[in-house]
Amino acid sequence: MDIEFLARFQFGMTTVFHFFFVPMSIGMAFAVAVMETMYVVKKDKIYKDMAKFWGNIFLIGFAVGVVTGIIQEFQFGMNWSEYSRFMGDIFGAPLAVEALLAFFMESTFIGLWMFGWDKFNEKLHLLFIWLVSIGTALSALWILAANSFMQNPVAYSINEATNRAELTSFVGLLKNHQLWVEYPHVLFGAIVTGGFVIAGSSAWKMLKNKDMEFFKKSMRIGLIIGLVGSILTIVAGHQQMIAVADDQPMKFAAMEGIYEDTSSPAPWNIIASIDTKDKETKWEISVPYLLTILGGEDKYIGMDQANKELHDEYDTKFGSEMDYYLPVKTLFWGFRFMAGFGSLMALMAIVGLYLLRKNKIQSMKWMLWLFVAGISFPFISNTFGWLVTELGRSPWTVYGLFTIADSVSPSVTATSLLISNIVYFLLFSVLGYVMFIFCKRAVKKGPYYVDPSEARKDGIDPFAKGVL
Amino acid sequence: MSNLQFLWFILIGVLFSGFFFLEGFDFGVGMAVKLVARNKRERDQVIETIGPVWESNMVWLITAGGAMFASFPEWYASLFSGFYLILLFILVGLIIRGVSFKFRSSSENAKERNTWEWALFLGSIIVPFLFGMMFVDLVIGLPLDATKNVMNATFTDYINLFSIVGGVAVTLVSFLHGLNYLRLKTEGNVRERSLAIAKKLYPVLFAGLVVFAILAYLKTDFFTERFTSSLILLVLIVVFAALAAYGTYKDKEGLSFISTGLVFVGIVAFLFNGLFPRVMIAQDSQFSLLIENASSTPYTLKVMTIVTVVLLPIVLLYVAWAYKQFTKRVKIDR
C-alpha cells in the first residue's frame, strides 16, 4: 500500500481521536473550576459535590487525552521525519514550551487536586483546578502556534543549503494573525464541549428523575457555559473565515463550493450539488448578497481562479503537475456540519436555559432527549472543523513551502505503517469504548452513590446511632 | 560545535535522566502491583504511592521528546523514524499504562480491576525494556545513510544480545528502584516483601552489570574513543548499585532509593558520554549524525535556552512542593 496514504490515514485517525478528548478536557476542567469557585464563594455544598462529580468524568477523559497526545508528539518523528527536519527549527520551540509551561502544570496540579480534597484549605484547592484549567488552555495555545505556522508561515527564512525553514523571530511566530483567529475558535469550541457534555448528561439523569436539584443546577451551569462559549466560537469562527479567504483562497472557495468567481455582491450557498469530475457546481440553493454581507468582500474568487493563481505562483517551485484542487465535497459539507451544529448548540442553549428558568424542562421528555443527543454535537463540530482546516492545507504540510509528499519518512516501510495503523485502530476502539462505558456508568451512579461494600465498612461504628 | 549546542546535548541527557529517575520507580511500582502486592488492599496501597505523581513524572519524557525536536530536529527525525516499531510498542505500553490508573479506579468488579492491573503491569515492563533496547542500539550503531535516515535496517540491528541485555538491565533497575520507593512510601507487608525481594535481586543486577560492561567493551567504541571517562562512569554505576544494595541490607531505604535513581543517571551519562560528539552512530562512520550538524539554528537554541532558564526553576519548585505534600507513608487500610 502507498506509504503516503497510510501515513496520512494515521495522522487523520490519531488526530481526530485525540481531538475528541482534548476539547472535552479543556472544557470540563474549566466547568469544574467554575463549579468549585461557586462552592468557595457561595459555601453551598452542592457545588462541591458538582465539582467532584464532574471532575471524575473530566479525569476519565483527561487520561485518554494525555496518552493519545504522546502519539501525536512521537508521530511527527516516526511518520514524518522529513517534515520534522524541515520544520524542526520552528515547530520544536513551541512544542518544548508547551511541555515546560503547560504539561508540567496540568499534570502536577491534577495530582494535587485529585488527592487533595481533604488535605488543603478550600482556596488552595480551588487554585489547583484553575491551574489545571489554565494549563490545558495554554497547551492548546502552543500547539496551535505550531499549527498556525503550517497554515500561514511567518517569521522564518529558508536556508537554501539545507532546505530547512529557520525561525527568525519567536515573537513574530506568536504574532501570526492566523494564531489569533484559530486559538480563540478552538478554545471556545472546547469550552462549549465541556458545557454540552455536562448539560446532556444532566438531561439524561433528569429523564430518570434522579437527584433533580443537583442535575438541574448542573445543567444550568453547563448551558450557560455552552451558550457563552458557542457565541464566542461563532464570533471567532467568523473572524477566522475572513482570514482564510485572504490567506488560503482555495480552501475558502472549496468550503463554499464555488468553482467560478462569484457575482458581485456574492451569494451564499446553503446547499449545493458539486461535481468534482467536471469541476462545476451543478445546482445550488443560495441566499443572495449573504456571502458579501458575512465576509465583507465585494466578490470572491472560485476554485478555478484560485487554482490558476496557485499555479502561477508555485509552478517554478513545485512543477505544473501539482494538483491544487481540494476534496471539495468534504470541505463544503464539513464546514456546514461544523457551523450547523455550532449554531444549533447556541440555539439549544438559549431554549434550554429558558425552559430551566420556567421550570418546564423536566416535563418535556423529547427536549431532554435532544440534549442527550446533544452530547455528540460539539464532537461532531470539532471533528469537522479540524478536517476542514487540515484537509484544506493540502497539498502542503506547510502552506506554500513544503508538500505532504516530501514530508513522509523515507525509511519507514508500508508494513510498519500498516502495523501501527492496525494497532492504533484497535487500541482506540478499546479506549473509546471503555471510556464511554465508564463515563456513562459514573453518570448513572450519580453524585450521591455509595459503594455498598464501602458503606458496610463505614457502618461498623460502635457509637453510631441505631447500631444497638 | 557551539556552546549552546553542547548545552542542549547535555540538557537532553538531563531530561532523560530525570525521566528514568522519576518515571523509573513508577515502572517499578507498576511491576510490583503483580509481583509484590497480594490482595486488593495491598494493590490499592501500592498504586496510591504513585497516584499523585506519576503523571508529572511522565511529562519528563514528553519534554525530552519535545526538547529533542526543538534542539536537534535531525536527531529527532532520524531516531524516531529509525526506531519505528520499537517506539510504537513503547507508545502502546505508555498508553495502556497511562489509562490503567483511572480505569482501574473506575472499575466495578474484580475482573475489570484485574484487567487494568495487567495493563499497568505489562505497560510498566514493556516501556523500560524497549527504552533499554533503543539506547543500546543507539550506541552500537545503525545503518544510517547520506540522507541521515536509518535505511534497510535488519532485525538484528534492533534485537541482539547487547540490546536485550540493555533492555533487561533497565527493566531490572526500574523494578529495584520501584521496590526501594515502596520501602520508602509504605508500611506493613508490602514494605517487608519489597525489602525481601530487593535483597534477592541485587546479585542478579551485579551479574547483569558485568555482562553489560563486557558487551559495551566489545560492541561499542567507548573504550577506544574515550577510555578514562567511560571507565569512571562505569565504576560509578557499580558504586551506586553497591550503595543501593548496602542500603537494602542495612535497611536504609532513603539511601537505596537515591542510589538506584543514580544508577539510571549513571547509565544515561555513560551512554551520552560515549555518544559525544555524535548523537547517532552510523555503522559507516562518515554518516554518523553529529551534535554539530543535527541541531537547530543558534537563534532557536538561544530562544529555548532563555525559556528554559526562566521556566525550569519554577517547574522544579512546584514539582518539589507537590512531592513534599505527599511524603507520608501510605497506610494499608485508611
From TrEMBL, chain A:
The chain crosses the membrane at residues 20-41, 53-71, 91-115, 127-145, 186-207, 219-237, 331-356, 368-388, 417-439. It holds the Pfam family Cyt_bd_oxida_I. Signal peptide: none annotated. It is a multi-pass membrane protein. InterPro entries: Cyt-d_ubiquinol_oxidase_su_1. The keyword Nucleus does not apply. It is found in: Cell membrane. The keyword Transcription does not apply. Keywords: Cell membrane, Electron transport, Heme, Iron, Membrane, Metal-binding, Transmembrane, Transmembrane helix, Transport. Belongs to the cytochrome ubiquinol oxidase subunit 1 family. PANTHER family: CYTOCHROME BD UBIQUINOL OXIDASE SUBUNIT 1, CYTOCHROME D UBIQUINOL OXIDASE. This is Cytochrome bd-I ubiquinol oxidase subunit 1.
TrEMBL record, chain B:
The chain crosses the membrane at residues 6-25, 75-97, 118-141, 161-180, 201-218, 230-249, 261-281, 301-321. Pfam families: Cyt_bd_oxida_II. It is found in: Cell membrane. It is a multi-pass membrane protein. Keywords: Cell membrane, Electron transport, Heme, Iron, Membrane, Metal-binding, Transmembrane, Transmembrane helix, Transport. The keyword Electron transport applies. Belongs to the cytochrome ubiquinol oxidase subunit 2 family. NCBIfam families: cydB. This is Cytochrome bd-I ubiquinol oxidase subunit 2. It comes from Vagococcus luciliae. The gene is cydB.
